[in-house]
Amino acid sequence: NEEYEFIGWFEGEIKVCETEKFVVENVTADKTYTAKFEEITEEAEHYDVWLGGAEFTSENLVIDSNDNSAISGRANFDPKTYTLTLDNFSYEGPGLFKDSTSLNEGIALYYSNPDCWDDPMAHGLNIVLIGENEISCVSEDSIMSAIYIVGSTTILGSGSLVAKAESSSGEAPY
């Protein structure tokens, strides 16, 4: 079956053979051998889009209060068109995103397309606004942004968006 991978033959908890073909020789007593398999699971696809401390992946295309209690409303992400729809979305917190090296605080909406440095036509992020939306990054960090996007951005819709970034030392640029 293509959905499972053979792990090996086991006698109790002890692996006795890793190959599918297993020959037992010199049998002098009853023994029980069990073939074990693991379900093959696909790793979630990552889109480098983070909002309100949560990441959009192929397994999580909606971000709402289930992802973070500091969120109200909801946000949907369509990976085919790279469209983020904010529907009466509100977030206030330190933000969270992962760049190529580490998990970081200090950005409430983060998108990075590394291809845009070499190809200005590489897909950007489309943002559709429904209702009143607010994204606030509040952190003790002095370097932060409410919105940080590497790539082109198109904002559509009849809604509004207020973006703020504040540190303990006062207003920070965004």
Description:
The chain has 174 residues and is mainly beta. It has no helices and 17 strands. Strands 6, 7, 8, 12, 13, 15, 16 and 17 form an 8-stranded mixed beta sheet that branches. A 4-stranded mixed beta sheet has the order 5-4-11-14, with no helix packed on it. A 3-stranded antiparallel beta sheet has the order 2-1-3, with no helix packed on it. It is elongated and about 80 Å long. The model has no long low-confidence stretch (mean pLDDT 85).
Question: What is the secondary structure topology, with strand pairs?
Answer:
Blueprint: E1 4-11, E2 14-17, E3 34-39, E4 46-51, E5 54-57, E6 62-63, E7 71-78, E8 83-93, E9 97-98, E10 103-104, E11 107-112, E12 125-130, E13 132-139, E14 145-150, E15 153-156, E16 160-167, E17 170-171
Parallel strand pairs: 8-12, 8-13, 11-14, 12-15, 13-16
Antiparallel strand pairs: 1-2, 1-3, 4-5, 4-11, 6-7, 7-8, 9-10, 16-17
Strand-residue fraction? over 45%
Structural class: mainly beta
Cα distance, first to last residue?
A: 52 Å
Overall strand count? 17
Shape: elongated
Average the pLDDT over all residues and give the rounded result.
Answer: 85
**Sheet with the most strands, sense and barrel status:** 8 strands, mixed
Helix content: under 10%
Work out the helix count. 0
What is the N-to-C succession of helices and strands? EEEEEEEEEEEEEEEEE
What is the rounded Rg? 24 Å
Low-confidence stretches: none
